[in-house]
C-alpha cells in the first residue's frame, strides 16, 4: 500500500511538471524551475512518515521539524483567546511514538518556540533561502546528532531557555539547559567552536542592568557552556583567550565615536573584569563616563549612583583563567 502511495505521488508530480512546462511554453529556464517545484512536491507529499507528526486532541500543529531518524512537532492549544497559549514540543521516533516532550508557551499569532537552524543566521532560518534548514549537529564530538530547543517566556525584555538534546539511536536525552538568555530564540545565543579541534560551545548573552540605565543600556555578560563528557555546563573561566579577544574587539568598537554608548561602556568594564583586570575596568568606565553624562542627566540618572552600581557589578564578575603572554 505504501509503495502504491509513493508511485501515485510520483505520477502526480510528473503531471504537475508537464502542466507547468506547457504553461511555460517549454522555456528551458522555466522548465528547470518546474522540475524544482515537482521535486518539492514529492518531498512534501511522499507519506506522513516523512513530513508529518500525529495530531493531538485540543491542539493545533504549528510546525514539523525533520531530525534524521526522528521528527518533532510543535503544537499550540486551541482556541487561543489570549496573547499566548500553552504549547508542546514533542519528538517522535519512526513508529510515531513520543520519546521526548517539553511544555511550552506559544504566542496566539506566532510560535515562540524554535529549533536552532545551523544553516541559518543567528540560529534562525533565513526567509527566502533556497537551502534546507539543518536542525542537527554533533555538538559534543561523540558522533551523535544534537539539537538546541529555544523556549521564550513571553516576558518583556526576557527570556529564553535553551535545552540541548542528544538524539541517540535508542533514546533521546537532554544534555544541557541554559536559562536567562536575552530575547527571542535565538537572539542571545551563539553556537561556535572556540578552540580548534574541540567540540562546539554555546555562548549565552545575558544583560546585567545597573543604575546607569534601562535594559538597552545593560552590560552584555557572556557565559560559555562546554560539554564535560555528560552534559553542557558553564565553563566560562576556561576560555580566557577568547574573552581577551572579546575585550580587544569591544575596544576597537569604542574607538569609533558612533559606538560610544552606555551599553558598550558597561560591557567593556565587564570585559576587563572577566580577564582579571577589574581595577582597569573601573578606571576605564570612570574616565569615559563624562562624555555620557548629558545622556544620564536627560534621563534623570545620578552619575554617582551609576558609577557605584557598575563597580558593584564588576566586583561580582568571576575571573577567567588567562594565560600570561
List keywords for this structure.
disordered N terminus, globular, 4-stranded antiparallel beta sheet, 325 residues, alpha+beta, 27% strand, 12 strands
Architecture blueprint of SSEs:
Elements: H1 2-23, H2 28-45, H3 48-51, E1 59-67, E2 70-77, E3 84-92, E4 98-107, E5 113-115, E6 146-152, E7 160-167, E8 172-181, E9 189-192, E10 201-208, E11 219-227, E12 232-234, H4 240-254, H5 262-274, H6 278-289, H7 293-298, H8 303-316
Antiparallel strand pairs: 1-2, 2-3, 3-4, 5-6, 6-7, 7-8, 9-10, 10-11, 11-12
Could you describe the 3D structure shown?
- The protein has 325 residues and is an alpha+beta fold.
- It contains eight helices and twelve strands.
- It has helices at 2-23, 28-45, 48-51, 240-254, 262-274, 278-289, 293-298, 303-316, and strands at 59-67, 70-77, 84-92, 98-107, 113-115, 146-152, 160-167, 172-181, 189-192, 201-208, 219-227, 232-234.
- A four-stranded antiparallel β-sheet has the order 1-2-3-4, with no helix packed on it.
- Strand 9 and strand 10 form a beta hairpin.
- Helix 1 (2-23) packs antiparallel against helix 2 (28-45) and helix 5 (262-274) packs parallel to helix 8 (303-316).
- It is globular.
- The N and C termini lie far apart (69 Å).
- 29% of the residues are buried.
- Mean pLDDT is 86; it is low at 1-50.
Share of residues in strands? 25-35%
Structural class: alpha+beta
Kindly report the spatial arrangement of strands forming the biggest sheet: 1-2-3-4
What is the total tally of β strands? Answer: 12
Overall, the morphology is globular
Number of helices: 8
Q: Terminal Cα separation, in Å? A: 69 Å
Main sheet properties: 4 strands, antiparallel
The share of residues in helices is 25-40%
Amino acid at each position: 500500500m505504501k509503495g502504491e502511495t509513493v508511485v501515485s505521488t510520483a505520477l502526480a508530480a510528473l503531471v504537475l511538471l508537464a502542466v507547468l512546462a506547457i504553461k511555460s511554453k517549454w522555456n528551458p529556464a522555466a522548465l528547470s524551475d518546474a522540475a524544482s517545484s515537482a521535486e518539492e512536491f514529492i518531498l512534501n507529499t511522499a507519506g506522513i512518515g516523512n513530513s508529518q507528526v500525529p495530531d493531538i486532541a485540543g491542539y493545533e500543529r504549528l510546525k514539523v521539524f525533520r531530525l534524521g531518524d526522528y521528527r518533532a512537532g510543535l503544537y499550540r492549544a486551541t482556541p487561543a483567546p489570549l496573547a499566548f497559549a500553552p504549547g508542546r514540543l514533542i519528538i517522535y521516533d519512526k513508529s510515531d511514538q513520543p520519546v521526548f516532550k517539553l511544555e511550552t508557551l506559544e504566542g496566539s499569532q506566532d510560535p515562540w518556540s524554535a529549533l536552532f537552524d545551523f544553516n541559518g543566521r543567528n540560529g534562525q532560518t533565513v526567509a527566502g533561502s533556497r537551502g534546507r534548514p539543518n536542525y542537527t549537529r554533533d555538538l559534543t564530538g561523540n558522533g551523535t546528532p544534537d539539537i538546541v530547543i529555544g523556549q521564550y517566556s513571553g516576558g518583556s525584555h526576557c527570556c529564553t531557555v535553551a535545552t540541548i538534546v542528544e538524539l541517540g539511536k535508542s533514546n533521546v536525552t537532554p544534555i544541557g539547559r541554559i536559562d536567562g538568555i536575552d530575547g527571542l530564540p535565538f537572539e542571545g545565543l551563539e553556537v561556535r567552536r572556540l578552540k580548534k579541534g574541540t567540540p562546539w560551545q554555546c555562548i549565552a548573552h545575558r544583560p546585567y542592568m545597573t543604575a546607569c540605565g534601562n535594559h538597552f543600556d545593560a552590560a552584555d555578560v557572556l557565559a560559555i557552556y562546554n560539554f564535560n563528557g555528560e552534559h553542557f555546563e558553564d565553563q566560562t573561566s576556561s576560555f580566557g583567550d577568547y574573552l581577551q579577544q572579546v575585550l580587544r574587539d569591544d575596544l576597537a568598537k569604542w574607538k569609533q565615536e558612533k559606538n560610544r554608548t552606555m551599553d558598550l561602556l558597561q560591557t567593556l568594564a565587564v570585559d576587563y573584569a572577566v580577564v582579571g583586570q577589574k581595577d582597569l575596568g573601573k578606571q576605564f568606565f570612570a574616565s569615559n563616563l563624562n562624555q555620557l553624562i548629558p545622556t544620564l542627566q536627560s534621563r534623570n540618572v545620578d552619575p554617582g549612583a551609576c558609577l557605584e552600581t557598575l563597580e558593584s557589578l564588576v566586583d561580582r564578575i568571576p575571573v577567567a583563567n588567562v594565560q600570561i603572554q
